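Our working data are protein records whose layout never changes between entries. The record below serves as our worked example for the rest of this section:
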Amino acid sequence: MITEHLEAILKKFNTAVDEEGWDVLPEGTHLTLYAGRQGAPLVVGRIVALRREGALLYTRVAGGDLFILEQSDLFALGMEGKVGRSVRRAGFG
């Protein structure tokens, strides 16, 4: 995936850049990244923030784990959740 594709996708998902340079997704949304290299697939799910440094893409998932991928290995992104809709919290009220 080239940089222009990734930037267009992140813009569509309404990411905001935080003070550390991470593209943070809106609350209640997550990304799933699909990558592959030499026939070996990798799926990284529940991504809440991304940061690009050269050819590398750092991804932070909901549990706090960090995955580092080469951007050229990406071939698809998926989004879970609804952008622009309020998040319904568990409980009363």
